[in-house]
Structures are given as structure tokens and as C-alpha cells.
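pasting for ref. prot 1 ->
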Amino acid sequence: MSFLATGKVNYRARLERAELLAQRYSSAQEILGFYRHIARFQKEFYEQLPKLRGKQALASASDTLRSHLDLPILLEPFGKFLSLIESQSPEPLSEHCRRLKMRGETEWTKVLTDFWNSGLLEADAAEPLTQFAARAFLQPYAEFRVAALLPPGLPMTVCRCPRCNSLPLLGVLRPEGDGGKRFLQCSFCSQEWEFRRILCAHCGEEQEQKLPVYVAEQFPQVRVECCETCKHFLRTIDLTKDGNAVPIVDDLAAIALSLWAQENGYTRIQSNLLGT
């Protein structure tokens, strides 16, 4: 069992891929345009984090990803993020972020702390608009912090992130030999860990006949991996079909595949940031 090595997050690649896919898929232009506003903020925030943290140690040997939240350095940037979303998003998200911004740092502390402690551990969000704001803002912070943690031991295939126990967002097929090795990507910290090719990432079903895979001609690099036992699905980005794909972005563009899966009675294990 292997864990994909943590490295610096390439937000530029995410932005460039979002622009390309917006040109390729007219149905995704609006959602990817909105995502580019978010990703630009995330890129700048991610690049500022070393300076904001100063000489503080990122993690001790006993730390887990969720063990510490640097609230003093997060509150001011979170206010700026809420202003961005208020100005760039449609209703009712814009109005929700306006109201949240007006409540001030006491409420922001609660929102960020609650999401850091328990966000994405389950599929359903009691307040999806609040979760969106916390998730989008904290994603680069989680990606930054996870780089300081020791690699976890992986004695067996696991359906949750070994770093933070979150549900998987995606599968990723990375080229290996004449085929591809399957990884799962975390919905919280974006890390990847190896996962068996024939296994449901939700219930552990391993009978191949109960695990159909669907691919649409429009999205040859995106697999919809379904389970007839638990009726959940996982979208997998196949880098053996398109080595230029950026999993987190290609997933956002595949709106039609989510609609198809829902119409056929499947539920996604964990939604992506924009619910596409």
C-alpha cells in the first residue's frame, strides 16, 4: 500500500485547466468561471501562508491534520474571502456570505472551527452554504498543513483519508506499466492514497459484476464507478486517457455525469466544492 507523496500544490495548473475546460464544455462555462475566482484567491492565500505562520512549527510528530487550527492568521483572510464570494456569486450564496461577514469574527471562529473539526466526515451538510464558505477557504490551508505531517502507515485498503478521516472526493487512475494504479483523493486535504481497482470506496463491495463503470463520449477521461450494493458512485479521473487532466478541475466540469448518475438512482460518496 502506498501514499502519494505530498508536494507543493499547483494552483496555476488548476486555473489553466479551468480556463481550457470552460472553452471545451459550454455547459460548464459558468461554474468554471466562478471556480476561477475561488482558485485565484486560494492560490494567493496558499502562497501567503508561510509568511503568515512565520517561524511557528507546522506540526509535531503526534499531530493529525485536524489537531490544530491557526485561527489568529485565518480570520482576516476569511473576511476578504467572504467579500469576494459576496461580489462574485449568485443569490442566495452572495446574500448568505454578506450576512456571515456582518456577524464578525466571533461567528467566523465558530464556522471555521466547526468545519475544521468535523467537515466532510459525512456526506450531508446541515448548512450547505456555510459549509461551502468554510470548505473553499480552508482547502489551501489544509493542503499547506498536510505537507508537514509524517506519512501515515497503511496496513490495508481504507475508504477514508488516512490523514484526516474524510470521505473520498474522487478516484484517480495514474499510469503504471501497461495500465493504471487507482488512488482515492481526499475531499478535505486533497491527498491521495492507493486503493484497489475492484472495490467500492463506500461499502467495500468487491464483486466485479456489482461494480459497473460508465464512460460518456463527451468526457472520455472521467469514469463513473457505481456500486449496485450501496447505490453510491465515485467519479474517477483517468490520467491514462488524458495526462493533462487536473482531477479536481475535470471533476467540476463533468456536470452532466452527476445528473445522469442521480437520474439512475446513484448517490455520490462526497460532493465536490460546487456540487457538480
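and prot 2 ->
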Amino acid sequence: MSVQRYFMKENALRAAVHEFLSKELERAGYSKVELMRTPLGVRVVVYAARPGMVIGRRGQSIKGLTRLLEEEFGLENPQISVAELEAPELDPAVMAAQIASALQKGVHFRRAAYWALRRIMEAGALGAEIRIGGKLTTERARYEKYVEGYLPKVGDPVLKQMREASHYTQLKPGLFGIRVRIFPPNAELPDRVKPKERLGPKEEAKPAAGGEVEGEEGEDRVAGAEDE
């Protein structure tokens, strides 16, 4: 197998596992997955907002998940570890899933969008955009967009630092799509200049070795001694 075919196969496997886990672990605040092949098998790292729900009581949920990954995707001896997200509000996949869950419970789409937007900005994001599409108010599908803060559209910061995720949910009117874009608080912008630190007050003169005094005060004392 060529190198290109190998990486294409690995990326397809990772995408399939990600889609599977996003449905299985939606309530746990699933974000992403990492697959690493080791001599002992395949190491699977699952990132979620609520790791306890992934593990389950006495590890029953994670054992069942291990069995499913082995049967459905042919992973050899999968070893699953769960990592907790430090700031779930800054993860677009988690926020998009929470908006979809709110829509399924009957919450109005505008209320759900503003609720998520407020949580994202309170977590320290520089900017955020939430886009909800579907049959919102009429039989004709359309979308509404909610934006707050500083959110660049093009350029290197968008390609390298913008976080984006999409989620779809089936409701009675039809299929709804949610897209969340977050500009993280630690993003570096080329058009923003950091000011230099202000220097502190000048230190007082200290006596040097041999009893001599440095500074203007020391010079005055020496001059007074010569006048005497």
C-alpha cells in the first residue's frame, strides 16, 4: 500500500469513528477523537465535556464502547481514554450539539442561539457566530445568523485559529443545521500591537563597596567634604 492510500484510509477511518461517536456520545458533550496506532493496539482518545457519562458506572459504558469500536470498525484491541475539555463553551462542536439539544426540547431557535452566544462570550472568546438554517418560521427554508464580538472573515488568523463545527438535527418541520464559529481568546492578530511594559520608578542610590556613595546625593557629600 502506498503512502497516499494509507493516509487516505486512516483519515476515512477517523472520520467514520468521529461521526459514530458524535451520535453515541451526544449527551456527554462529545468534541473530537484521536486515533493512534501502537504495538499493543489502537489508542483512542475521546474529548468530552462530561467524561463521567462516557465512562459510565463502574466503567460499563466505556466497555460497551470498546466492544462497538472493535466490531463496527475492526480496530485491534482499542484502548479508550477520556480527556475532559477545559472550556466546553469555547468548543464549537459542544455548543452546536447543545443548541441542537435545546431545539429538540422545543426551545425557540432565537432563544437557543442567544443563550449559546452569551455563554461563549462570557467564557472569554474574542468573537462568535451562530448560524441556524431550516424551516424556521415558514415552509420555506432559510437561515438566521447571530454574531457578537470581533470575528475576522478572511486571512491567516481565520485559516489557523478560527474554530468551527456543524451539527444537524431532525425536527418536525424538517432538518435543521447549526454552524458555530468561535474566535478563541488566545488568538494572535497581526493588526494588534502589544504595548511595551512601563518601566518602574528609578531605584534609590545604594552605597557601593568601600563606603562610597553612588548617585547625586553621594557627589554632594563628597563636595561638602572638600569645602571643609
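Residues 3-84 form a domain with the GMP Synthetase; Chain A, domain 3 fold (CATH 3.30.300.20).
The chain has a mean pLDDT of 83.
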